Amino acid sequence: MSPNIFLQNGELVIILIKGNKHEIKKKKFYFLSLRWILLATYVVIGIVPLLLIASTILHSVQDYFIEERKKELLSQANVISGQITSHDYLMDKDVRNTLEETILQMSQEHDFRVLVLDSSCLVVYDTGYSDAGKTVLIPEVIEALQNKDIARKQEDGRVYAAVSISGMNNSRVGVVLISDDMKDIVDTIANIAQKGNLLLAGLAIIVIIVMFFMSQIFTEPIKKMIKVIQKMSEGHFEQRVQVHSRIHNEVVDLALACNQMADQLEKVESTRQQFVSNVSHELKTPLSSIKVLSESILLQEDVPKEMYVEFLHDINSEVDRMAAIINDLLTLVKLDQKEVPLNFKETDLNEMIEGIIKRLLPLAQEKKIFIHYEKERDVVAMADEMKLTLAIANLVDNAIKYTPENGSVVINLDADHQNAFISVADTGIGIPDTEVGRIFERFYRVDKTRDRETGGTGLGLSITHSTIMMHNGSIKVYSKEEEGTTILVRIPIRQSVL
């Protein structure tokens, strides 16, 4: 909390203000940033599998060594069992000492312990000399007496290998039991594990360092974009993300998209400012006229009635012009904000166009302009008939207004299996190439003087464009100065949202 101190009525006042919650959250969740999430993900993906693989390999190596030692101990036990059987060790005491020396020598050479048991599990001979004369009842001995050679690792880490001794008539007269402590295998595995851990630690450090810089490479451009977007949100639409990478990837695409958005926002802001300026200008003109006319009446004495009537007619015309501008502005605002719902229904475009021509024919005849309607086929489309009629009527009305006397206007209706096409072509004054892309801007006029003569507000084409867009269609302009203009409208025959 930060204190604010000031004097009020001679008294010291201290107000404690809590810190910005967003700043507190930002500090609290700093380590949840994309950079740290990427780093943690890379570490988990890069190091954890290595640890799992190393652990699996280590256990496999250990199991392999133990299995090999089991095979070796069983082989040694079978050799001893064969010697005992061939020399009748359990029955002939004369050869016992010689054979025991051989067994002891083998035990010392391979560093394991050998026990010889009779069929009652009594230890006859023990190279360790500690269990001689004792009874040893362990699962390995019992299984060996059942004619099953067995080698098994014990809980204390030792390995027991038991092999039966054959007697007369293939009977089992005893067991050879070898015990080995596996210390050499444990030491070998520990040595491998130590070296493996050092290698893994080195790899982990390398992976963390590489991933740290990789995460920075990925997140740094995003941070720059965030700063640019934040500045744009404050109204600095001139901000741009600097793109230096020659490699085309998603981050570069994001930066370019951010710059494109900035261009559009800057354009929208410029259009908004121009729009406000145009609205002010358009409303200022009739207001100025009204003020001049009204002052002329007020400042003159003994004004004739005829002059009153004339001035009031002029004032009424200017008021009508202001009303038309305001109504068109309200229509545009409603269209932009989608406040005006479209009432889609099956509309016979042929009947709609014929109705438009019928209403505008007197205006064309007054200028001796020939209107020709070409219908390629009957077309029924899902549309808002009232709004679409207004949009197409604006196009035809403009074509008549900007076509000199004795000119012509051709209206064409066609369709394919998906879209309806309406074109309005005239032999009028045309539009310069540099102006074609701007004719749908609000209050934009190619020839301001001539447009004022026609009485237009400069908003008709903007309303037409917005209406066609709301119908999920498109509008294109083809024009050449002094030769005429063709405007092509496309609208879907079926609308996806009704």
Automatic annotation (TrEMBL):
It comes from the Bacteria. Keywords: Kinase, Membrane, Phosphoprotein, Transferase, Transmembrane, Transmembrane helix, Two-component regulatory system. The keyword Transmembrane applies. Residues 278-495 form the Histidine kinase domain. SUPFAM superfamilies: ATPase domain of HSP90 chaperone/DNA topoisomerase II/histidine kinase, HAMP domain-like, Homodimeric domain of signal transducing histidine kinase. Its main location: membrane. SMART domains: HAMP, HATPase_c, HisKA. GO terms for molecular function: phosphoprotein phosphatase activity; phosphorelay sensor kinase activity. One of its GO terms (cellular component) is plasma membrane. Its EC number is 2.7.13.3. This is histidine kinase. It comes from Anaerotignum neopropionicum. The lineage of its organism: Bacteria, Bacillati, Bacillota, Clostridia, Lachnospirales.
